[in-house]
Amino acid sequence: MHEKIHRVVIIGGGFGGLWTTRGLATAPVRITLIDRANHHLFQPLLYQVATAGLSSPDIAAPLRHILRDQRNVEVRLGKVVAIDVTRKSITSKDGTELAYDTLVIATGATHAYFGNDAWAPHAPGLKTLADALHIRQRILSAFESAELAASLVDREEWMHFAIVGGGPTGVELAGMLAEIARHTLRDEFRNIDPRRATVRLIEAGPRVLGGFPESLSAKADAHLRSLGVEVCCGAPVTAIDATGYALAGASVKCRTILWAAGVAASPLGALLPVARDRAGRVLVEPDLTIKNHRDVFVIGDLASLQQDGKPVPGVAPAAKQMGAYVAKLIRARVERPEKFPIANSNVAVSKPFHYADYGNLATIGRMSAVVDLRGFRFSGVFAWLFWLAAHVFFLIGFRNRVAVLLNWATSYWTYQRSARIMLDSENETR
């Protein structure tokens, strides 16, 4: 009689889900990886697609292609709408039900508007390729609309760009937008001078890059201002609509507002019978399982875990480490069940997950970045080269690395951006 093979279902093909899947490549398990998209996305470079520096295939690769040689995995395209931890099954939107022995949920995060969801249509965030393409369309369309504007007032509204949120994504978007306006589009229009565009970065806190040391934050601020970015700290945006935003009690007319201020956990966490934090993240046990159901793991941005009195950050390195940890634990449970039982217990019997924080990086435009590596802090050109090497190294696939290097080299020498293609506005899919 054949022994039943252990069924692992992984929801989400991001960093956490993919690293779990690859970590189980030689394990005696059968894996089903489910994602709403057919690709793995390298999110740290998503803003480059939004600002026309890179094209979509440069930072994304089909999951089936990535896992084509891993014989113990099946990739499914679908959206999970129900999780039954008692029956140990999940249900997709099309009604398909799938049983599991171990479930790994790694569906990441989405945009958070702090209770102001009506702002979303007017201030898109950046989490998916669709988001990036939509933002790119809005940025390029704004310059085209300014070129055709009938009045100076309309032209100024189209030439005003506001980014809400001064974290790494906001800083990177602001720096790239300033470069597009000052250099890429220079001399290409007849009725406007793109260099006169206003790029404003708005941060409710006292400084940009609040998660970085103050010295690096100050350098980032100074470099943004040298690029022509207006940095506004210490006052939150209080209203956003189709005509603009309100800041410090004053209404500002603006047609292009980008959101980089907050994230909320994937709504899939609400399907689990466990507590969540204020951002909707699932409170997990030290071994990344959920309370009373040690056959269910939650990892990546969806997991809420305290370490040394601080929350484990929702960043790519943490998701990768969680995925690798969970893969090792699943393998141990399958191969040595007497030592690592999967019984529903509130007592963790495995070594707790520990996040190794190697630091933070953020780029601020052409040949400038800030790096904080466990107290070793530097900025400028060397930091930018370090940032470039780190991001290219972690890209999935040789083809992606070569394409990104070629595109960046071209951009460096010419100030041009290879992905400045707009869709027909009447046929744009948003």
Structure description:
By secondary structure, the protein is an alpha/beta fold. The chain has 2 domains: 6-36 and 78-111 and 263-335, FAD/NAD(P)-binding domain (3-Layer(bba) Sandwich); 117-261 and 359-421, FAD/NAD(P)-binding domain (3-Layer(bba) Sandwich), CATH 3.50.50.100. It is built from 11 helices and 27 strands. The chain has helices at 15-23, 46-50, 56-59, 63-66, 129-148, 152-158, 168-184, 214-226, 316-335, 381-394, 398-414, and strands spanning 6-11, 29-35, 39-41, 60-62, 73-77, 80-84, 89-92, 97-99, 102-105, 109-111, 160-164, 198-203, 229-233, 237-241, 244-247, 250-253, 256-259, 263-265, 282-283, 289-290, 293-298, 303-304, 306-307, 310-311, 360-363, 369-373, 376-380. The strands form 9 sheets. It has a 6-stranded mixed β-sheet with strand order 5-2-1-9-21-20, with helices on one face. The chain has a 4-stranded parallel β-sheet with strand order 13-12-11-17. A 3-stranded antiparallel β-sheet has the order 6-7-8, with no helix packed on it. β7 (89-92) and β8 (97-99) form a beta hairpin. α1 (15-23) packs parallel to α9 and α5 (129-148) runs antiparallel to α6 (152-158). The longest helix is centred in the first third of the chain and has 20 residues, at 129-148. The radius of gyration is 23 Å and the shape is elongated. The chain starts with 5 loop residues before the first strand and ends in a 16-residue tail after the last helix. 41% of the residues are buried. The model has no long low-confidence stretch (mean pLDDT 91).
